[in-house]
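Final report, closing paragraph on structural work. Over the funding period we assembled a curated collection of sequence-structure pairs, and we close with a single example.
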Amino acid sequence: MMIIITTTVVAFFIFFLFFLYACVIADPETSNVGRFCTKLLPKLLYQQLEKTVGKKVLSRLETLKDHAFQLVYLTVVLGAWSIMFCYGYEEIEKSNYINTNHQYSGYIVFLMCMSSFHYACNTPPGSVTATTMELFDHYDYDNVLYKDQLCPTLKIRKIARSKYDRFSRRHVPRFDHFCGWINQAVGEQNYRWFLLFLTVHVGMCFYGSWAVSRVLYGEVMEKDLLNASFFNAITGAEVQADCWIVFHYLFLRHTQLCGIFVLMSVMSVVLFLFLSFHLYITSKNMTTNEFFKWKSVRRWHKKEKQKYEQSLQYAAGKKANHKASNYPSLVPGELSDVDVGCTGPRGELLHDSAPSVTDSEVLDPGMLPTNIYE
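Its predicted structure, as stored:
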């Protein structure tokens, strides 16, 4: 049993680290692992599902897909709180290592959790229309990410920092990303509620992890488990306690609480990193959409600059004809408005459409464009 639990915990953390790298950290445009996990694998699974159940059933399932993440969220959060109310509070009542007042503060945290989720789900991000355009049109065009042009879908002027959201079928001012957990776009009018939603859940996970750890630590201290002797159920031999044996004992005795502790500890780290990212881009007056677009622009500029510098050093054979850019801040490409989710864009952002040159010509990309909104 000890081997099974240890293997399960190690496998969980390996899977979690792989998921974090493949779906969050890795860039799908440069990483084969990231591209496979975020683009190829979902496409293959969708095609296989379509072959298995048929297009008609799949179309019906897609109506539930819009709320899938919300259902997962409610299942996990309400399930975890149910365990705490049924099992955790009873252990808090008996423990001498945590104040019983935390039973009441737990109800407050639960209400804050559900309230922040409700407001994040139901506060609209704003909608740019012909009548509301003046309300949201308070940013200048940078002529890099945003240019004065019409929205091809709604046929209205695309104001700076806005983006058409195909899920809600509206033009969202200061578009950040589409969040499946709240099933709507995050924009100018609901970004504060999204940040509150994240902050409350980070606090909830850290607080819950600490509370459960105090309950488990109290049992270890009160029963002096680290100095206790245990008997092997298979061999009958007496075994001196160590950390793994004590963990095994606690996991068997408090399976639900240990599961909640592992879940909240992992989610504390994940949500804290995600909140830190949003606080960082907020301090830079950027959005998730803009962060990844600028990342794409910097990648393009670095690649073109390296190509130009290498051509300057090329001496053998046919010499290159080097041309300096007349427009040092103009990116020779088209930045597409692909879907942007919590983990970044779902497709290529910069499609190269550089000016036509001969094989012997190498263009200098000039200076890296600057973000005028910082």
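The chain has nine helices and twelve strands. The longest strand covers residues 163-165. We thank the funder for supporting this effort.
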